[in-house]
Design brief:
Number of domains: 2
Strand order of the largest sheet: 1-4-3-2
Helix content: 40-55%
CATH architecture of the largest domain: 2-Layer Sandwich
Radius of gyration: 41 Å
Strand content: 15-25%
CATH topology of the largest domain: Beta-Lactamase
Number of helices: 7
CATH superfamily of the largest domain: PAS domain
Order of helices and strands: HEHHHHEEEHH
Distance between the termini: 152 Å
């Protein structure tokens, strides 16, 4: 001790307590670094994607002339639009989750047609088909169908897009036209008083009817008897 009563030995020091640093530790991100910028960029791209996707989704849902819906890789229905409800008679709550073979006739199902179409779409990318399809209450309609395999960015199959159009009226009109043409053909072939036939653009005969045959025989008979003047009895 000195005269003042104060110790001259160095003062004791306890462990130094470090103050929290204002800078983030190595490997951490304060939200303003590269990680934060990447997350913000991803969020903005997602928002932009949904902004572009939403109008298209609304368009598909409201289309009424075409049944447009998605199938999962096994063929089960996962989306439904107004056109599908109109064409097939099912509400979304009634059909989503069911297999799309519900729309095929019993004969087509037994023949494996639904699965064969999926297999072709998977192999070729898309397949188009026409035939009878079945509505909710059993009535049938003539459909034009396109099935497209849908894959993600890595090429993995995520399902199938299916577009169906009701062509019943077109099919009926085609059948009626064929029947009309057949009746006209039979009528022309049966006519005996007139030679009715068709020529191709080069003048070759491509059709012939009973009347043409009868007049041809008559002309040959007259020629053999020396009957008929110049040009008489010719059928062409």
């Amino acid at each position: 001790m000195n005269v003042t009563g104060l110790s001259t030995s160095p003062p004791r020091r306890g462990p130094v307590r470090q103050q929290p640093s204002a800078e983030p530790a190595s490997g951490e991100d304060d939200g303003c670094g590269d990680t934060g910028l990447r997350e913000e960029g991803f969020l903005l791209s997602e928002i932009a994607w949904h902004q572009r996707e939403e109008p298209f989704r609304l368009f598909v849902e409201t289309v009424q002339d075409y049944a447009i819906f998605m199938l999962d890789p096994d063929g089960r229905i996962v989306t439904w639009n107004a056109g599908a409800e109109r064409a097939k008679g099912y509400k979304a709550s009634e059909i989503i989750g069911r297999h799309f073979s519900s729309f095929y006739t019993a004969e087509d199902v037994r023949a494996g047609r639904p699965q064969r179409l999926l297999d072709l779409a998977l192999k070729e990318g898309r397949v188009e088909d026409e035939g009878w399809r079945v509505r909710k209450y059993g009535s049938q309609f003539w459909a034009n169908v396109t099935i497209t395999a849908v894959r993600d960015a890595t090429g993995k199959l995520i399902g199938f897009g299916k577009v169906t159009r009701d062509l019943t009226e077109h099919q009926r009109a085609d059948v009626a036209l064929r029947h009309s043409e057949e009746r006209s053909r039979l009528f022309i072939e049966a006519v005996q008083d007139y030679a009715i036939f068709m020529l191709d653009p080069e003048g070759s005969v491509i059709t012939w009817n009973t009347g043409a045959l009868s007049r041809g025989r008559c002309a040959r008979r007259q020629a053999s008897l020396g009957i008929g003047g110049s040009g008489e009895g010719r059928t062409i």
